[in-house]
Recover the amino acids of this structure.
């Protein structure tokens, strides 16, 4: 069993998503005490934005620049971490109606044709069906079903879609939203998320 834990919030100790993923990580570790645990901070461990080196050059990196070679090597490491993980825990705050660019850069490194998905007679076929993904979603406003802002949710819907595209069927999203709507709403949202984490099995 391998657990991959990702954080993407830029607000450090003030981050709600980081605090929630930390709780979720401890929950998972207690459930799987023998699991290998891998942590990647997508903000403090700067990840270059993807320039398609892996797709253009494959394993032949002789004609690339030093920066591209570094990207190629890091991309392979990121891909291997994802492929080997049984559980992927993702901290995904909403930034400007979508996910942080740091998280998007990570996603661009794992969406690799012929590896995590392929095209067949019926179109795209995901190759990562055996994984479990747990997303800790935080947002200042309220974008859930039935709200007036629901059409502007390009965060949770995107995360569900991209992992679904890769064939992951077991996706759990735990949401704390309305955090910027005042202390009472924020406290209730965070408490609800913590309760959901406590029920993870």
């Amino acid at each position: 069993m391998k657990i991959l834990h990702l954080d993407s919030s830029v607000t450090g100790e003030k981050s709600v998503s980081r605090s929630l993923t930390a709780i979720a990580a401890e929950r998972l570790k207690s459930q799987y005490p023998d699991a290998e645990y891998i942590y990647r901070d997508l903000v403090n461990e700067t990840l270059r934005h993807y320039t398609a080196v892996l797709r253009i050059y494959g394993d032949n990196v002789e004609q690339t620049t030093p920066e591209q070679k570094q990207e190629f090597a890091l991309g392979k490491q990121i891909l291997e971490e994802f492929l080997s993980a049984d559980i992927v825990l993702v901290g995904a705050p909403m930034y400007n109606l979508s996910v942080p660019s740091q998280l998007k850069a990570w996603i661009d490194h794992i969406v690799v044709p012929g590896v995590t998905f392929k095209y067949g007679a019926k179109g795209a076929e995901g190759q990562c069906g055996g994984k479990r993904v747990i997303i800790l979603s935080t947002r200042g406003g309220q974008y859930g079903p039935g709200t007036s802002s629901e059409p502007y949710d390009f965060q949770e819907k995107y995360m569900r879609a991209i992992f679904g595209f890769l064939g992951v069927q077991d996706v759990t999203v735990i949401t704390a939203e309305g955090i910027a709507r005042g202390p009472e709403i924020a406290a209730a949202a965070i408490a609800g998320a913590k309760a959901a984490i406590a029920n993870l099995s």
In short: The longest strand covers residues 132-139. The CA atoms of residues 50 and 106 lie 8 Å apart. Residues 2-198 form a domain with the Rossmann fold fold (CATH 3.40.50.360). The two ends are 15 Å apart (CA to CA).
